[in-house]
Design a protein that fits this description.
By secondary structure, the chain is mainly α. It has a single domain, classed as Growth Hormone, Chain: A. The protein contains 20 helices and no strands. Helix 4 packs antiparallel against helix 5, helix 6 runs parallel beside helix 8 and helix 9 runs antiparallel to helix 10. It starts with a helix and ends in a 5-residue tail after the last helix.
Length: 446
């Protein structure tokens, strides 16, 4: 016997959820989703796992970028002994191309990191780095193309493949203390740039010689890289490969005035930054200082560089990353002009200390500065990678232009004026970026 419509309606009403219960259930769902979202954006900000990743990045920076920053030893050795048939400008291309690939590889590695290819990049880049070092040890004197391929191209690409992913993985563990953690990690390259010159100068100019010395350094770096790979581990889930593309990211980021002016500023800064670093040892020798002292100029510069990568980053929270970067870059521009007056040991030591500190501040503050422009953490790798790609061209052309201005007559004022003007012009561009960001955020502490 079928029930009447009235009784069926009454039954539906009896079984229908009460309005209060529906509201409570909805609130519970919303609360659960909110708590899940919070969990997704919560960062450890410390602990063994987080700091072990920082240590791993420190080791990889020591072995790869630290070796690149010690190129001044190679530059001096090539100019005076190994590639004497070539000009300073031609030899400078080895270091500048190496620098280009270090920073410009981020065009691909930034997005690859975001989409989950961290281990592929780190293992592949590390293996290429060690292989190219051993290949460099097999080159012959006056064979420019051999050195260029092994060191300029090979080591540059290898260091670049590991650079952006190594720094970006720290963002998986730190947010509030990110600038400090990145500053500590990047200090590895500064320590490496201080240790490698001591070792390389002693090997190249001692009984071991160039070829065996390069192989010895390759063996040491291999051990450090293995330790680094065991310590580093990504934490956050990868970005979906369907979400955006490199071209889409490029179109989006280049619509932002702050991002564009940041790229312009870093481009100019890189064009002027590395000439004093690559040529300080050679300038000390040309000034008549003893080789035993000149060999340690880079050690002093890069040793203080370590401190410069950490101390300014501690001040990021209270003072702002752009404020600190502008102050440090202005100081570097002034110091480059002061290098014209440096001719004796005390002046060289003071210059090495100051330039080392402020150039270290640049390296330590750069990545947090770019990361501060990101709308979400998922785009940090892409922003860093794209920025490094464009700005790497500044590093590519800057040192060879300065080397050509130096000429075989070693006219030092011409490249130093060029480098100083580039540095101050880049700083002016960052001042405009600071104005835009400050206006957007409503505060001057940016």
């Amino acid at each position: 016997m079928s029930s009447s419509p009235e009784s069926q309606s009454d039954s539906d009403i009896k079984h229908a959820p009460e309005p209060e219960k529906v509201a409570l259930d909805t609130e519970a769902v919303v609360e659960a989703l909110a708590s899940q979202e919070v969990a997704e954006v919560t960062f450890p900000e410390g602990g063994w796992r987080a700091w072990s990743v920082v240590l791993g990045v420190w080791f990889i920076q020591f072995a790869t970028l630290g070796y690149t920053n010690a190129h001044g030893v190679y530059n001096d050795f090539y100019v005076r002994e190994y590639l004497t048939h070539y000009s300073s400008s031609q030899i400078s291309w080895i270091g500048s191309v190496q620098l280009l690939f270090v920073v410009s590889s981020g065009l691909f590695t930034g997005r690859a990191f975001d989409t989950g290819y961290f281990y592929h990049l780190m293992i592949g880049g590390s293996a290429l780095f060690v292989v190219c070092l051993f290949m460099l040890s097999l080159t012959h004197a006056e064979q420019y193309y051999q050195v260029f391929l092994a060191q300029g191209l090979g080591l540059g690409i290898a260091s670049g493949v590991t650079y952006v992913p190594g720094l970006a993985v720290i963002a998986h563990y730190f947010q509030r203390r990110r600038a400090l953690a990145m500053g500590i990690a990047t200090s590895g390259s500064a320590v490496g740039a201080a240790v490698h010159p001591i070792m390389l100068n002693q090997l190249f100019h001692g009984r071991v010689g160039f070829h065996a010395g390069v192989r010895a350094s390759a063996g040491m770096n291999l051990g450090l890289i293995v330790i680094a790979l065991l310590l580093m581990k990504p934490r956050l889930p990868p970005k979906s490969r369907k979400q955006g593309s490199t071209l889409l990211d490029l179109k989006t980021f280049l619509r932002e005035p702050a991002y564009v002016t940041t790229i312009s500023g870093i481009f100019l800064i890189l064009a002027g930054l590395y000439f004093p670093i690559f040529f300080l040892q050679l300038k000390a020798i040309k000034n008549g200082l003893t080789p035993s002292f000149a060999f340690y100029t880079l050690v002093i510069l890069n040793g203080v560089n370590t401190v410069g990568r950490v101390i300014p980053n501690i001040l990021v929270a209270p003072l702002g990353v752009f404020n600190l970067m502008i102050f440090c870059m202005t100081s570097l521009g002034i110091l480059i002009f002061c290098m014209l007056l440096v001719k004796d040991i005390p002046g060289t030591v003071i210059f090495a200390i100051l330039y080392g500190f402020f150039s270290g501040a640049y390296a330590g503050l750069l990545t947090p500065m770019i990361a501060s422009l990101a709308k979400t953490d998922a785009e940090i790798g892409a922003r860093i990678g794209l920025c490094f790609t464009f700005t790497g061209i500044g590093g590519l052309i800057g040192t060879p232009i300065a080397g050509a201005l130096l000429s075989s007559s070693f006219i030092w004022w011409r490249p130093l004026v060029f480098s100083g003007v580039c540095m101050l012009a880049g700083t002016a561009s960052l001042c405009f970026t600071r104005y835009v960001v400050s206006k957007t955020k409503g505060t001057g502490w940016v």
